[in-house]
């Protein structure tokens, strides 16, 4: 069994962040561990408050895990401040995990700013060069690249730009395209691949970005190539959205254990 570490924020409603990551790791047959970067007060309707964990505590959590347990892959999610980003980058350079999937979480589904504006440049400078794979959505890719992205052509240009900034590979998520499709663009520095998908009409998409990046980390740790991992992870998330859970009064979460429920006969269509 592979050992995966998520470095991200805690979601009190359980649909995103650390909680979504650990569920996704388990759903892919891997053992999940966590470094918490921030505690959020949030539910399906939105985020109301964030309390950051100190950089010293973040660094101590990273050292505690790596000094005792072999880590096969790391997923990095929500980080709100530059000092926290630097602490994580220092820890990754120190312990040198073979696989790092970076999900540059910037804004919540409800519009709450999760990454402080000044920290975006720090993330680009410190974490992008350490990433095996980066998974921005279109607004996040815009923030990294500095130009508007509204089309598939611009997604491809953004992917090339992000790799030029130091990432090994990038998967730009196109779920906000205006054509009713949810096509993603995978670029590994040499080859570009479109991963097609049809948009599922549901409001219950809380935590999809966290879930996708965690699935990618698990699939890469389990020996898949980047393209194989991207295709498998996209299929997993699409199915999890199709069977999403209508919890709360806002945007409910995806169904992280949809495959297990299906095999056990518990899945309801």
Distance between the termini: 31 Å
Output the structural class. alpha/beta
Tally the structural domains: 1
Query: Which architecture per CATH?
Result: 3-Layer(aba) Sandwich
Average pLDDT value?
Answer: 93
CATH superfamily: Ribokinase
Name the helicity range.
25-40%
CA gyration radius, whole angstroms: 17 Å
Q: Please state roughly what percent of the residues sit in beta strands, choosing from under 5%, 5-15%, 15-25%, 25-35%, 35-45% or over 45%.
A: 15-25%
Strand order of the largest sheet: 3-2-1-4-5-6
Regions with little confidence, pLDDT below 50 for 5+ residues? none
The level 1 CATH classification is Alpha Beta
Total beta-strand segments = 9
Total of DSSP H or I helical runs spanning 4+ residues: 9
Q: Give helix and strand order, one letter per element, not per position.
A: EHEEHEHEHEHHEEEHHH
CATH topology: UDP-N-acetylmuramoyl-L-alanine:D-glutamate ligase
Shape: globular
Structure description:
39% of the residues lie in helices and 18% in strands. The chain is an alpha/beta fold and 269 residues long. The protein has one domain (3-253): UDP-N-acetylmuramoyl-L-alanine:D-glutamate ligase (3-Layer(aba) Sandwich), CATH 3.40.1190. The strands form 2 sheets. It has a 6-stranded mixed β-sheet with strand order 3-2-1-4-5-6. Strands 7-8-9 form a 3-stranded antiparallel β-sheet, sandwiched between helices. Helix 1 runs parallel beside helix 7, helix 3 runs parallel beside helix 4 and helix 7 (208-221) packs antiparallel against helix 8. The model has no long low-confidence stretch (mean pLDDT 93).
